[in-house]
Design a protein that fits this description.
single chain, 89 residues, mainly beta, three-stranded antiparallel β-sheet, 1 helix, 3 strands, 9% helix, globular
């Protein structure tokens, strides 16, 4: 998929497309920014934002990591079980 970088800042709560090192590799994976990650601006496609559930984001961010081949991989699997999409205002 061709990259669609934009000017939306990567700050807490922003939802952005995950990709490999190739700019045009974004697919169906995404991440939710937990803090200020402005170094990602114009390098990843920010396409949404949390409007509720910041408490859930905090719970996900506090899960112990270190599993798998990456230090940032959760030790225990974390799953998003439901999402509600709402139109932009």
């Amino acid at each position: 998929m061709k990259a669609e970088f934009n000017d939306r800042p990567h700050v807490k709560g922003v939802i952005s497309a995950a990709r490999s090192s190739h700019p045009d590799s974004a697919g169906c994976q995404f991440f939710i920014v937990h803090g200020d990650a402005r170094f990602l601006d114009k390098q990843y496609t920010a396409f949404g934002a949390l409007v509720a559930g910041e408490d859930v984001l905090e719970k996900i961010a506090s899960v112990p990591t270190g599993g798998g081949s990456e230090k940032s991989t959760p030790i225990d699997r974390v799953e998003v079980q439901s999402v509600k999409l709402v139109p932009a205002k």
